Amino acid sequence: MNFWWRLLTSDLQATEEPEAPKIWQPQPGPQEKAIRASFVPELFFGGARGGGKTSFLMGDFASDVQKYGSNWRGIILRRSFPELDEVVEEGKKVLYPAFPGTEYKVGVHEFRIPHATGTVVLRLRHLESEADADNYMGHQYTWIAFDELCNWPTLGGYNKLKACLRSTAGIENLRVRATGNPGGVGHQAVKEYFIDAGPAETIIEDEKSAIPRMWIKSLVTDNKILTDADPLYIKRLQSVGDPELVRAWLEGDWSVSLGAYFTNWNPKYCVIPSFEIPEHWPLFGGLDYGEASPTSFGLYTIDYDGHIYRLCEYYQAGATASTHAYEIDRMIAANPHTGGRRPQQIWADPSMWVKRRLSEVVNQSPADVFQQQGLSLSKANNDRVTGWRVINDMLARQKLHCFDGWNDNLMRTMPSLPRSKSNPEDLDTHTEDHAADELRYAVMHLYQPSRAQPRHNDNPFFGTNILGKVPVVKRKRRA
Length: 479
Hints:
Layout: H1 2-15, H2 30-36, E1 42-47, H3 53-62, H4 65-68, E2 73-78, H5 84-98, E3 103-105, E4 110-115, E5 118-126, E6 143-146, H6 156-161, E7 175-180, H7 187-195, E8 213-218, H8 224-229, H9 233-238, H10 243-251, H11 267-270, E9 271-272, E10 283-288, E11 295-302, E12 308-316, H12 321-334, E13 345-348, E14 356-357, E15 363-364, H13 366-372, E16 377-379, H14 384-396, E17 400-403, H15 408-413, H16 434-444, H17 463-469
Parallel strand pairs: 1-7, 1-8, 2-5, 2-6, 6-7, 9-17, 10-13, 12-17, 13-16
Antiparallel strand pairs: 3-4, 4-5, 10-11, 11-12, 14-15
Helix pairs in contact: 3-5, 12-13, 14-16
């Protein structure tokens, strides 16, 4: 029996011929358009899950390997190393058949592609925070890619790495590529920089970037390779349950707010036209302080029905305490809705009272600097979870209103602020929550926690109950 088994298997092995590896080709539609747009310095590709984003990155890098040889240097970044596993597998599918002899070096996390001029290197790295971008400042790349750009809370690291895009070899079409889906901590930042800046497949040139950029929308229906191999994938996306999730993952809808904390935010009630504030309505402020990160100040009032109005805001990063105090004071004095009235109280981040020794004779806190400007601050209640609940309650009861055109940063950031993954009762602290923090400081003092009333004990033998039934004998005073 063993003889016949060996004979059968040897015949099968002799007749089977290994399939020739297939060379990767961009799929017609968005993927092909993105590959052909090599003349665009910055390009964002994506919109829905299963749109062929990672294979696009590998194909885009591979498209100039033969032309530039060893002068063509690339890097693909994810936020953490475990996220690179998928990138490695996709790289093997695209690069190995296209360039025989290509190797992936696990120890140094890079693909090495043989070429007549030398070795072409594609590095895979992680960039956990914006500060990590400083580790790459001495590097030179001709092609830089960010896979799943929405996983980063801001575009700070993305913008810093653009300084590494350079070459002395006269290479044309140096470029940055990025992919992503709606959702994630960086949803709002990506949406503002790419999606809201202009229509898809259109060159965008504005003050936000010195170089032209573009975004191309890709849906799962554009990935025929996936849908042919897995016809039920779209059905599985439709069955995730959450309608917002379906719109984001299947339709690539950037207007959704996946995992948003303030689900009760409704522009119909929250955004109103401005009006003159009556003199008998009190004014108060909220202040979240930052120097490298933004300082956010909001001016508020409240009417007799408990409706709170955010009249205007100051929102600025990269300035000192004295600059912030001066500009806020000017803004308050120039406000046309209040006649320049000053707020009765400003509730601020408690960390503003931490003193820093600036010199041998100067030892002051940011709160001291504001006091010198004539802005007296009060320490705010910094209970984050309770503060968010108060704001959500105000939104649910339609008690919070913002003057349209005067509160752009709060209205920009509030709707999409996500919950913390480690503590769903809190906001994700890695997002742009400065205006929300300042709002929390401002409104917390309006709500005083009520004290629980002690329960009445009906036991007839309980001490106070017995004493209550003892007759009181009134003695007559002696004359």
